[in-house]
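Why predict the complex rather than its parts? Because the way molecules touch one another can change local conformation, and only a joint prediction can capture that. The input here totals 154 residues.
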Amino acid sequence: MEREDLLLKLNWFYCLEVGQVELYQAQSKKFKGSYESIVFERTALIEQEHVDLLAALIRELGGEPYLIGDVISPLFGGLLGKTLAFTGLQKTLQGNIRIENKAMADYVALHKEVGDEFGPQLQTVLEHNLVDEDVHTAWFARRLEDYELLGLED
Ligand SMILES: [Fe+2]
Ligand SMILES: [Fe+2]
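Output of the joint prediction:
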């Protein structure tokens, strides 16, 4: 893979992760006072770590991370809007799982595509971010399952 292609891909992940930080912070505020609110707040911190790791990688490759606007809404056909406001906990969890799945699929794809030509750190960051998204997805999915079992309505 060419360095420029890799930089473009890493920058896309950078934007996705920045979007996730904003998303989970907004959700934490929205569900304030609940256990989920605390989970969203802590998850946002992990996503910020992903942002920082990606920014460092991009800079090491001689690039500079930049925001290309909202990359999350297009994943939902643009329906989400800039406020990233999902209604109700059930839809919120479903949306989060969708975003995390997208992130995981793309991390796996890039990890497969790059060898060690850019050094071991790149693969380590992709692996670590992937594992974190996997953990987030598992928690969201389990909470959603509880929610559905209880038959709660949004
Ligand atoms: Fe992330
Ligand atoms: Fe995540």
